[in-house]
Design brief:
alpha/beta, Rossmann fold, six-stranded mixed β-sheet, 12 helices
């Protein structure tokens, strides 16, 4: 008999950690950091640095899972849906002999995050590459990955089978990104099978019920905002969101501006240029690379030779600010621009709105006001909208829906008759 335990994620967004077990095999789906703290404020990832695993388990940062973070019954594999820290941020604390199954894209994004985002780098020999629609076996389990559209490159959903039962884990998913056909294909491939349990993300339950914009609609909005900007345009977003990277690159090209990347975004472009609709950084494609002081001060200069022919200086940017669309982060205000952005700079913010409570973002907004600039949110969610959740679940037709990755699991009852709301640590026997 297969057993399901959501160690964390039944009543919160992020911190995902799910166990599937038979009498002889245990696998873990994701091992993530909390996204928010108990007060639903953004979780400070720096707070875990230097703390021993036992302390992180005691304070609730890591769930208490024997054999995963501490000694105990063997965990046979960790299956990783994608690279976001709320799904991968505790991997460095897991037992080092546990193999990690992930897509090539996820592995690349984790490499970029380790080099530039101060994320913990994992031993490469732990990784086992998986490919969409190609099943792999771990003990009693047969798992089939399916590529899905999310704001992290290389994201996967998984169909997991054992003891004659099937569980579909959505991971983080959406239908409004640049690849909406991925959800259609998943429904086509899986919807004809009997799914006993659907582990379904519900980020948007409990939040804004209106359907938000698509990535293509966001591109049109950004093109208008860039076209109407009188001076420098600053783009604030995660380079690991390759869809958004493509959106800003295309917006620069469509408005006749140079797309100025930092080293982080340039490295991601280099990694995915053969797999995504974006070139490796080069001036012929309208891309220049600026090495900001934050990365230089940390000694991340190895890519300077790689992009030597395509670099741009701050003097070049200041000389013609109206011709640049520049990847930007708040630390650059002081470290690079010496506390003085060009007059009438426009900053486009493409992150979760919760981060705006941080002091660095508030300071940036205040400074923009002093130079007659503006600060404009321009974002599309990385998570599936409620209407699309309803359509997806009904198309899959599972026997049981288990909500995860949501603060409001009980709202699933309003839409589906077969919902089982679990608590963290509760065991569900799949019969």
């Amino acid at each position: 008999m297969m057993r399901l335990t959501v160690h964390r994620g039944t009543h919160e967004i992020g911190g995902s950690c799910i166990e599937l077990a038979t009498d002889s095999t245990r696998i873990i789906l994701d091992a993530g950091l909390p996204l928010v703290d108990a007060a639903r404020e953004p979780f400070d990832q720096r707070s875990i640095r230097g703390k021993p695993t036992e302390e992180l388990i005691a304070d609730g940062t890591a769930p208490k899972v024997p054999g995963l973070f501490t000694d105990g019954q063997k965990v046979d594999a960790i299956i990783l849906s994608h690279s976001h820290l709320d799904h991968s941020g505790l991997l460095h604390l897991t037992q080092p002999d546990i193999p990690i199954y992930a897509s090539s894209g996820t592995s690349k994004m984790m490499l970029a995050g380790a080099v530039f985002g101060q994320q913990k780098e994992l031993a490469r020999e732990r990784f086992r590459e998986v490919r969409s629609r190609q099943p792999f076996e771990v003990g009693d389990f047969r798992s089939t990955p399916y590529v899905v559209d999310h704001s992290s490159f290389g994201s996967l959903a998984f169909l997991v089978e054992a003891d004659g039962k099937r569980i579909l884990y959505s991971g983080d998913i959406r239908r409004h990104g640049r690849k909406p056909g991925m959800m259609r294909d998943l429904i086509r491939d899986v919807g004809t099978q009997q799914i006993d349990v659907l582990l379904m993300e519900g980020t948007h339950f409990g939040g804004n019920r209106t359907k938000g914009k698509t990535e293509y609609e966001l591109e049109e909005e950004i093109v208008e905002l860039v076209s109407s900007a009188p001076a420098l345009v600053l783009a604030c977003f995660s380079p690991l969101d390759v869809d958004r990277l493509v959106t800003y690159y295309r917006s620069a090209r469509r408005t006749g501006r140079v797309f100025v990347t930092d080293a982080y975004a340039a490295f991601v472009m280099h990694l995915v240029s053969g797999e995504a609709a974006i070139p490796t950084p080069n001036r012929n494609a309208g891309v220049r690379v600026y090495f900001n002081r934050h990365f230089v001060n940390r000694g991340i200069t190895s890519l300077q030779d790689c992009f030597a022919d395509n670099q741009i200086t701050l003097d070049d940017i200041r000389a013609e600010p109206e011709k640049q669309l520049m990847v930007f982060r708040p630390s650059m205000l002081e470290l690079d621009f010496n506390g003085e952005l060009p007059s009438q700079s426009r900053c486009l913010y493409s992150y979760w709105k919760g981060y705006l409570e941080r002091a660095d973002w508030r300071k940036l907004q205040q400074h923009l006001a002093t130079v007659n600039g503006d600060f404009i949110p321009a974002h599309a969610s990385g998570h599936i909208y409620i209407d699309d959740i309803i359509e997806f679940v009904n198309a899959i037709g599972p026997k049981t829906v288990v909500p995860i990755h949501t603060f409001e699991p009980d709202q699933f009852h309003q839409h589906f008759p077969n919902v089982r709301v679990l608590n963290d640590g509760e065991i569900l026997d799949i019969r």
